[in-house]
Structures are given as C-alpha cells and as structure tokens.
C-alpha cells in the first residue's frame, strides 16, 4: 500500500512540470510530423495507404525518442541534489523508479493520440478495436524503455557523457532493424536475422496489425510479449539501480 | 540523538588497498544540541554525514540516529531527520510551492496537511514573493532558503546541515541563520552541521567536533578548544630588533616567543591577565615597549594547531 502511495507521489511530482507546460508536448511532435509529412510521401507515394503502414512506426519512434532520453532528467537531479534529498525521505525505494517510469505513459499516450488525430484527415484509418490495444502495448513498451533509460542514467552517473553515447548508439540501430521507417522486405539475410532478434520488431509489427484492425493472435502475442519483457527487464534493472543510487 | 560506536567506512580502490575514509568514530550528540562538525577536505566529514543520513552504509561499527539504527532501520531514521545537502534540494523544473508539498507528501503528510505546512513555511521563510515561480529562476540565496524550508517540512527532531551557507554572501548567511535559529527555538531541533565558515561554527555552534584522517581529534565547546589548543596571542613591538631579542630572551617571559624583526609574539592561556605582568617585567628589565596587543584565538587557530592546516586555505 505504501508502495502505491509513494509511487503516486513520485508520479505526480514528475508529471507536474509537464502539466504546467503542456506546450512542450506539442513541440516534441515536430519531428514525427516532419517524418510523416515529408518522409512518408517520399518513400511510399500516395498518402492513404502509406500512412496506414507509416503512422504505427512513427508512433513507436516517438515513444522511443521520448522515453529513451528521460534518464537525462534523473541525471540532472543526481547532480543538483534533488535526488539525494528524495533518498533521505522515507519513500519506498522502488517507488522512486516506478513513479518516474509510469509517468512516461502520459506524454507518450497524449502524443500518440495527437498523431492519430492529426493523420486521420489525411486518410489514416485506425481500427476502433485494435487502436486502444495498440496504444496499451506501446505504453507498456514505453514504461520499460523509460525504466531502462533511468537504469542507464544511474549506471553512468559518474561519467555523464556516457549516457548520450549509449543512448544514441543503441537507438538508431534498434529503430532501423525493427523496420520502423523502411520495410525490411528487400534487406539482406543478415539484416533480417538481426531484425528477428530485435524485440522492437515485434512491437512495430503488432502496432501495424492492430491499427489496421488485424486482430490475429500472432502479432498481438509476440508484440505484447516483447513489450512486457522490455518492461519487466527495465523495471527490474531500474529498481536495482535505484536501490544503490546513493553511493 | 546521535550515538555512534567505532563507525567505519572503507572504499575499494582499483588495484590498491582500500581507502579507510572513516576509521572508528564515536559520536554522542544529545537532544537539542547544535553541533558543528569540522574537518579539512578528505578528512571523513562527508562520509560520516552520509552514513548518519542513511545515504551510505557503514563498513563496520554502529550508528543510532534519532533512536533508530542506520543499518537495521534506515526508514525509521529517515522519518525523523531532516537533511539539507550541499546541492539544491528542489528540482530545477519544479515550482517552489509544488516541491514543498511534494516533500511533505514524501514524509507521510496528507495532501491537505502538506499544503497547510507549505503555507506556514512560505510565510516563515519569506518565500511568498517567489513561491509560484520555477526553482530554476531563483537566486542562490532564495534557493538556499527553500532548501532549508524543505528540510523542515516534517518538523524533524534532528536536522543535518551540510555546508548550509556555502556560496552565500554575508547578508544572506545572516538571514539564513536567523530562520534556522527561529525554527530551532520553536521546535527544539537538534542540529548537526558541517561548515567551512569557522566564524559560523564559532558563533552558532555550542559544540565543535573536529575530524581528521577519519578520526575525531577534538570535541568541546569553542572557548574551551581555543583556550586549550590555541591560547591567546600577545603581540609586542619594540623600538628596534635588539630590544625585541632581549625581551624574548627574558627568563620571566612566557615560553616560546616568536621574534620577527622588532615584533615579539607569545602564546598564552589567558592573555588579558598575563599582559600587565609581562609589561611590568619588561619595564623592570629596562626594555621599552612601543605597542602591546592581545588577540583572542579563532577556531582557525585551533584548527591549525590540531591539523597543521588552515581550513581557510582549504576552502578558498
């Protein structure tokens, strides 16, 4: 019970600056909108059909940009003393990580809904049954990636520059090999092998299937499992790192 | 309030023997005391403070803080202590009032209680003019006042202050202390602080503990430490160096005079009482004294006598 209350306290604290500056959420949409507006038509010609393939990928990309960078906020609070002060309160240690990671849901889902609403006039047709499930999977994945980002921040807190090195050098290979922006149908075998090993591939496939209203079990289960696994690993590593974050 | 026995902390070093940062510290601080904890950089001061505030587990020994063992019941300790670290407690992107409420919630106050307490602190610490602003927009003095207010949200029995006024100008330091002293008078808070400003330790603290090389090397009130370790300084000047040398060699003069040109300096336990007799002796010996001055020792003199280093050099 205390864990739930404490997680709520941390969650609320993290959410407040976002709610105080809601416009910051819209600014973060600039990049995906550019991708959607220029990259999509460039690669796939006409809009309607290409959006159906492209929008789910952009939603995952959006989730990855935001959540994988969130550790930088913690890194900053590790420097200023704000984190240390939280450590000397009776807050349950896992709550310090859980509250932060769960807060990632909010900007992620708000932005995803905005993108969907923005693309519907241009011919994107999200399935009313599949879309909520797709957003749920995206949310679980985002919480996991956010937790991993915090774990990374805590792991490299004595060499802060390492944070961006690791984040950047993982982010793009993961995104490309997941077939997020470009289909991998013409890719050589080795690239496709990497793609199969990338959990993100399954999340992207599930998003595409669900938004299209394809409720087949396979993409739903593999995508859901990849997201859940990411969340499980992220939260486990994150909570462990948080417990040792004072020294 | 604080009781440690043989408190130790080692740090592993790659390819070498472990560094013993704290090597068996015994501390006893009673309820309501205001103690200054001093030491040069690397003396074990911060490490000790981090162990007492549950940020760092001890390697050996025991520490009971506010009635709870730091190892067995760190949550119990955290409930009862306030901690104001060297950095800034409030998040850069947060608003002042929000952070005070959050801090109250972290310490188990209900939202209503936390809001009420926040209003109180905003009034007590003169935060009202910037209470709804972002923390990132505050000046250093404002931010430090907020830090102290946050540390007192839950009316802790025991308050740890780590370099509370470092980086503040004298006006803001005085202002900060006014607030701390008022809170202490109202709640009877025990205060354990580290500081680089020895005059601050001198005027505010009732007791001074000095740590060096991981061990406590002095523990007493500032006047006792000064009298015992540093003594008063009598400075006499003479018409010429020859007189100074004769005065220094006078057998009746206090031991260990330091001659510098036509100036002679003595270290004595009770300067004001010793000076008239000394002048009489010099007069009897036919040596003319041009000027005579007594200066009381500062804590820095104590520090120098104890560690061979001046804390003032360290901090600047």
UniProtKB/TrEMBL annotation, chain A:
Broad class of the protein's primary localization: membrane
Organism domain of life: Bacteria
Subcellular localization(s) per the UniProt record: Cell membrane; Membrane
Pfam entry (one): ABC2_membrane
Membrane topology: Multi-pass membrane protein
GO MF, one annotated term: ABC-type transporter activity
Domain ABC transmembrane type-2 positions: 19-245
Name of the protein in its database record: Transport permease protein
Provenance organism: Virgisporangium aliadipatigenens
High-level lineage: Bacteria, Bacillati, Actinomycetota, Actinomycetes, Micromonosporales
């Amino acid at each position: 019970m205390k864990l739930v209350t404490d997680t709520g306290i941390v969650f609320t604290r993290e959410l407040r600056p976002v709610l105080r500056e809601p416009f910051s959420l819209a600014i973060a949409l600039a990049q995906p909108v550019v991708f959607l507006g220029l990259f999509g038509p460039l690669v796939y010609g006409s809009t309607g059909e290409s959006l159906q393939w492209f929008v789910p990928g952009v939603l995952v990309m959006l989730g990855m940009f935001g959540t994988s960078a969130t550790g930088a906020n913690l890194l900053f609070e590790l420097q200023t003393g704000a984190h240390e002060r939280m450590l000397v309160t009776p807050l349950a240690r896992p709550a310090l990580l859980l509250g932060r990671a769960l807060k990632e849901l909010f900007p992620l889902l708000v932005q995803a809904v905005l993108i969907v609403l923005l693309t519907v006039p241009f011919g994107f047709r999200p399935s009313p049954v599949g879309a909520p499930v797709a957003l749920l999977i995206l949310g679980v994945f985002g919480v996991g990636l956010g937790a991993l980002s915090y774990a990374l921040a805590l792991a490299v807190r004595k060499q802060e520059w390492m944070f961006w090195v690791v984040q950047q050098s993982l982010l793009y290979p993961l995104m490309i090999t997941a077939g997020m922006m470009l289909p991998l149908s013409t890719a050589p075998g080795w690239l496709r092998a990497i793609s199969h090993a990338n959990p993100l591939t399954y999340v992207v496939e599930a998003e595409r299937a669900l938004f299209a209203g394809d409720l087949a079990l396979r993409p739903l289960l593999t995508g859901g499992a990849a997201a859940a696994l990411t969340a499980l690993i992220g939260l486990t590593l994150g909570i462990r790192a948080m417990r040792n974050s004072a020294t | 309030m604080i009781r440690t026995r043989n408190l130790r902390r080692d740090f592993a070093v790659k390819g070498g023997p472990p560094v013993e940062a704290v090597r068996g510290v015994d501390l006893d601080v009673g309820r309501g005391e205001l103690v200054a904890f001093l030491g040069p950089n690397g003396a074990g001061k911060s490490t000790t403070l981090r162990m007492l505030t549950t940020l760092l587990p001890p390697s050996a020994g025991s520490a009971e803080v506010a009635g709870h063992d730091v190892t067995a019941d760190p949550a119990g300790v955290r409930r009862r202590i306030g901690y104001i670290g060297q950095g800034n407690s409030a998040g850069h992107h947060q608003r002042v009032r929000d952070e005070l409420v959050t801090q109250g919630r972290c310490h188990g106050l209900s939202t209503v209680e936390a809001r009420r307490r926040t209003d109180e602190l905003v009034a007590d610490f003169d935060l009202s003019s910037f209470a709804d602003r972002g923390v990132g927009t505050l000046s250093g003095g404002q931010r430090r006042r907020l830090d102290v207010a946050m540390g007192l949200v839950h009316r802790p029995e025991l308050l740890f202050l780590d370099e509370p006024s470092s980086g503040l100008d004298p006006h803001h330091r005085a202002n900060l202390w006014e607030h701390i002293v008022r809170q202490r008078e109202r709640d009877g808070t025990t205060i354990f602080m580290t500081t680089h400003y020895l005059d601050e330790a001198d005027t505010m603290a009732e007791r001074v503990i000095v740590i060096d090389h991981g061990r406590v090397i002095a523990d007493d009130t500032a006047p006792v430490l000064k009298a015992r370790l540093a003594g008063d300084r009598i400075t006499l000047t003479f018409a010429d160096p020859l007189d100074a040398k004769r005065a220094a060699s006078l057998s009746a003069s206090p031991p260990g005079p330091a001659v510098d040109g036509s100036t002679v300096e003595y270290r004595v336990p009770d300067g004001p009482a010793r000076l008239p007799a000394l002048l009489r002796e010099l007069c009897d010996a036919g040596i003319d004294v041009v000027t005579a001055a007594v200066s009381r020792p500062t804590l820095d003199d104590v520090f120098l006598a104890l560690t061979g280093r001046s804390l003032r050099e360290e901090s600047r």
